[in-house]
Amino acid sequence: MTSTLFSPLTIRTVEFRNRLWVSPMCQYSCDAQDGVPTDWHLVELGSYAQGGAGLVMAEATGVVPEGRITPWCPGLWCDEQQASWTRIVDFIHSQGAKAGIQLAHAGRKASTMRPWDGNGSVPKEDGGWTTVAPSPIAYPGYREPNGLSSDEINDIVYAFGQSAARALAAGFDVLEIHAAHGYLIHQFLSPLSNDREDEYGGSIVNRSRLLLDIAKEVRAIAGPDVPVLVRMSATDWMEPEGWTLEDTVTVATWLREAGVDMIDVSTGGLVPGAQIPTGPGYQVPHAAAVYDRAGIITGAVGEIVDAKQADSIISEGKASAVFAGREFLRDPHFPLRAAHELGVEIGYWPRQFLRGTFAARRVPSDLEG
After folding, report:
1. How far, in Å, are 87, 196, 264, 346, 360 from residue 323 at the CA level?
2. Which among 218, 217, 234 has a CA at the least distance from the CA of 226?
3. Domain ranges of the chain
4. What integer is the mean pLDDT of 159-178?
5. Where in the sequence numbering do the catalytic residues fall?
6. In this structure, which CATH number among 2.60.40.1120, 3.40.710.10, 2.40.10.220, 3.20.20.70 belongs to the domain 9-367?
7. Alpha-carbon distance 32 to 74, whole Å?
C-alpha cells in the first residue's frame, strides 16, 4: 500500500525518508546548567531515530546563555556544546534519520523554573539571570525584562548566525529558527509585547524586522543546500489586539522571499489566558492556510496522535510534513507503528528490532535472548 505520510520529501539537497517528524521538545536536562547536552539527549533523540522518524528536531537551544528557557536547557555557543551535539547527530544519522536543531532565544520567558520544580523566574543565586525583551513588559508571574537596545538586537542576530555555523559543523541537516510560543522573536512580532517606537516597533514591517534579519543571517550561513525552517505561532488567540493568522501569512511570504524553506506552524504561547480551542489536529487549519496563501510549504502540529490522522493531513494537501510531539514521548517508535497501521512496507526497521515487527517475523535462534 502507498502512503503520502511515508513518501520521501526533498527540501533543497536533503531527502527525508518520510514526513512523520519529531517536534522540538524541551527536556530541561542539562543538569550542570552549562548548556551541554548529555546522555539523556543522546538516548531521547536517538530513540526517535531508531523509531523511524524522518527528521529528529532537537529542542529549543539557546544561541546565548541568557537565551535559554531555563538554566537547564541546552545551548550552542561554545566548543564543548558543539562537540556533544556532534555525538548525538552522528547517532541519529546512523539510524537513517535526518537531524535538525531549533535555534532559540527565550527573551522575557527565559530564566524560568523547570515545570516539575514550580513556576516563575529562577533566583539569581540559583543560576537565574536578568532577562531581555523588545520592551520592559513582563510575562505575568515572571520578573520584568530589560528592553533591548538596537546594538543588543544586532548582537542577537549575529549570535543566531554563529550558532547556525556551529550547528552545521556539528553535522545538523536542518536549521529551525524559533519564532513562536511567546519567546523573543514572537515577542517582537506581537503588539501585545512590543510597544517600541523605533525601527523594531509599530508597523508589522518593523515588528518583523528582527525575524527577517535573523532569517537572512541564518540563510547566508546555511548556504544553498541546507533547509532553513521557521516555527511561528500563527495566532496569539487574542484577536484583534494580538498577532493574527493574517499577519502570519504576510510574514511567511516575506520569509519565503528571504530564503526560508518551510514554516512550522503552531499557535499561542505569548500570553496566559488565551482561549484556545484544543482538540485533535486543532492547529492544522493554520498550517493549511499558510500553505495555501503564502506560497511556502508548511509543517503541521497539534494533537496529531495516530497514523490515519497524520496521513490524511499530507494526502489532503494541508501540509508537507507532520511534526508530532507527545505521541513520540509516549511511543518513540511511532513511525514504525504508523507504517504497520497504514499497511506500508518500510525498509528501516532496526535490525536489532526485527523480532518485534508486527508481522512477527522470526529471526535466527542464536539472536534470541
Report:
1. 24, 34, 8, 19, 29
2. 218
3. 9-367
4. 98
5. 183
6. 3.20.20.70
7. 10
Residue 115 has pLDDT above 60, yes or no: yes
Of 272, 275, 178, 257, the closest CA to residue 188 belongs to 178
What is the Cα–Cα distance from 45 to 78, expressed in whole angstroms?
Answer: 21
CA dist., res. 260 & res. 277, Å (int): 29
Looking from the CA of 55 toward its CB, the CA atoms found within 13 Å total: 33
The C-alpha cell at 308 is 490515519
pTM listed for this prediction? 0.96
Number of neighbouring beta carbons within 10 Å of residue 352: 10
**Residue found under cell 530589560:** 146
Average pLDDT (333-337) is: 97
Other beta carbons less than 10 A from residue 350's beta carbon:
15
Angle (CA) 162 54 353, round 5°: 125
Q: State the cell numbers at 321.
A: 510534513
Q: Give the single-character DSSP code of 164.
A: H
| Cα–Cα distance for residue pair 329/340, rounded to 1 Å | 19
- The answer to whether the beta carbons of residues 361 and 354 sit under 8 Å apart is yes
Distance from C-alpha of 326 to C-alpha of 170, rounded to nearest angstrom: 27
CA–CA distance, 361 with 299 (Å, rounded to integer): 34
Q: DSSP assignment of 104-151, as one string?
A: E--GGG-SB--GGG-SSBPPGGGT----EESSS-PPTTSPPPEEPPHH
- The mean pLDDT value of the chain amounts to 95
Q: How confident is the model at residue 254 (pLDDT cuts 50, 70, 90)?
A: very high
CA 300, CA 313: separation in Å to the nearest integer? 8
CB atoms within 10 A of CB 127: 12
Question: Which amino acid appears at position 83 of this protein?
Answer: A
Q: What is the pLDDT of residues 285-305, one digit of tens each?
A: 999 999 999 999 999 999 999
Indicate the SS3 state at residue 59. Answer: strand
Q: Which residues pair with 112 in a beta bridge?
A: 121
Which residue shows C-alpha cell 487574542? 238
